[in-house]
Amino acid sequence: MHNNEFLSPVQTGTQRGTNRSILNEKCRGKGKKKNIFEAYITKEEVSAGLKRGELIQGSLRINPKKFHEAYLPPPDGVRDIFIDGVVSRNRALNGDVVVVKLLPREQWKVLKTDVCEGDDVPGHEYSTGCAQKAIVDQVKACAIEEKALSKQGDSRSLSDDCFQKTAKVVYILEKKHSRAATGFIKPLSDKSTDLARKHALFSPVDHRLPRINVPLVDCPHDFAMHPETYASTLFICSITAWREDSNFAEGKLMKSLGQAGEIEPETEGILMEYGVDFSDFPKKVLQCLPQNLPWSIPQEEFQKRKDLRNECIFTIDPATARDLDDALSCKSLPDGNFEVGVHIADVSYFVAEGSALDSMASERATSVYLVQKVIPMLPRLLCEELCSLNPMTDRLTFSVIWKITPQGKILDEWFGRSIICSCVKLSYDHAQNLINHPDKMFEKNELPPVSSQHAINEIHQAVLNLHLIAQNLRKQRFDDGALRLDQLKLTFTLDKESGMPQGCYIYQYRDSNKLVEEFMLLANMAVAHHIYRRFPEEALLRRHPPPQTKMLNDLIEFCDQMGLQLDFTSSGTLHKTLNDQFGTDEYSTARKEVLTNMCSRPMQMALYFCSGALNDEALFHHYALNVPLYTHFTSPIRRFADIIVHRLLAASLGCGPPLKTSKEVIQKQADHCNDRKTASKRVQELSAELFFSVFVKECGPLESEAMIMGVLNEAFDVIVLRFGVQKRIYCNSLPLVSSNFQQIGKRPELTLLWKPEQKGEKSVQQVISIFTLVEVVLKTDNVPLKYTALLKRPEAQ
Prior knowledge:
The chain folds into 5 domains: 17-174, CATH 2.40.50.690; 180-260, CATH 2.40.50.700; 283-474 and 483-542 and 609-687, no CATH class; 547-603, no CATH class; 700-791, CATH 2.40.50.140. The chain has 18 helices and 34 strands. One of its GO terms (biological process) is miRNA catabolic process.
């Protein structure tokens, strides 16, 4: 969920809408037992309502910081539809595909009107209780509602631009959320009821989920007598039902994970919550693998494929990588051009369509990369051995080979199945060292083992030639309007014995990374054009929709207020102005990081799709790359979408089975790949957050410079530059005499007056505004996995 608070430090408007009729009804009929949630409409009513345009379908997003706020993507692409409160959400969970009904205009959320500026009654005040307690205090809520309405005046005179449409959920079309939650158990507060005698209360860590009644028989045998023993034990629970008349869901306690705050229990909880299958591969799947080991390439494959084993081909990957998907080659030609090859592991050879292995890989859809380990999409025999392009080993591949000029102009192109033998496994560090020292004669001990068939200087020259072409390809891409938003990425060093984080640093994206990226992009684009020409209805492609209009407009307005000359006309103009107007000094670099983060917020996720599922070819466009067609071909060991693309490519070339899959089936698989990619991305983020929290606990307090990203009435957001993390600092957590919020023009500003450290000293004043550089301290909380950012007291002037 994107958070727009950095654009609007003053709460404008009231969150009226969806709970209003319920609140007023409760105030009038106090004590009358009623359902809390509305019953869902029927499938027939859903179908008819969607056809008539009376209902709207979309994926629900719940604000993780304000769980009573939820949103639906707008059909018009302008402004999200707002769903206010747990009651209006009607038991739907984050990510579910829901059907909503718009509420009358008088119940829409007011966004911009002078009478709401500085309103002393926050519109969200009556819905800040826990997710399961939909109505906290009916009398107070009614009073707030009436006061907000009287202050707002007659909204009928306002234009539609002043409103955000509001809606209520009337049906859950698809339960995308796993319905699994990590959390803690405790006894129910009212022990006299039948419910309390048979159930315990499960409180999820994720506040977007309801509290859950779980049977006592699921709990540890001594829980009823000694609940305090389990106060810090993390459990996983599955929601089984959520009735209309209850604030609490019903569920089943699946297992005890272990002590909260410890890496392995927390990791298992994250995986289960996001539906990641980390179980061992079953026997029926393992039976699909080659059984006679060690395996060697069957003789008939040499008759069918291009034999490239004598070519100088090598891999460039992270030093710790075991699943080597891709290899590169570059041969100088007599006419001054180059023959460049991208060689990708031929995973589809081992994954027969319709097999148990295929079924499981399609269900997992992606490998999931945690800080400490990988949850593979395929069995390790394939990932790390038979498919992995390990050095000095014959491997089956799918190759794209170009004749290309030094400037990156493609003169000829070939696709086909091949056999390679990588001559060396280079890390990014090795490749970077080769690039940094073009004239150096490298010794054997400076590189990993190299095949005796190829000299080190041959590999060195190939890397330098690839680097030259990649630089030109990259320049041309950005000249043609591509956009790249590089956000700070934290990398950890782990203790080999304990697995605990020893240190962390910001990952440096260097020329060796860019080299590999350029040729992977080139291969993906080439394959996209090829399969779309051959299969205009069944091609699996990847599109990137343009930024969300409302959020982009808010960002443009913010940049105007701050006097920033960013051009949001296109992806290319944004990239150019974001990179051209900042220097390389510390302040400019930090300001660019903040702006890059802000520019990332309106961006939408890239999506897999089947070409036959979209009527308008303009929708195929990839916004960030600014290309008409794109797909994923280069990572079949870790992405199932790439396996489908390999099958399409093989069918188009006549070197694989003919295509039998319908466009409907391909689109369904594309949707599933999108869902699993989203879950995988979030799991990866949570894994990094987990390790950083443990690192702060073990090695903190940690000091760092930070830059202000947003200023609110009584808090401000910072990006911690040493670690790339974002934190909110609250004024009430600091030893202040006072804090004063004001708008300077349209720029938000907080003036902090620090308490004297010693008697007789004067108070120190500090002004907090966006792009201010400050010093912060990160220190652990008493709550597991929580840490706080505190502002360091400024030096007296």
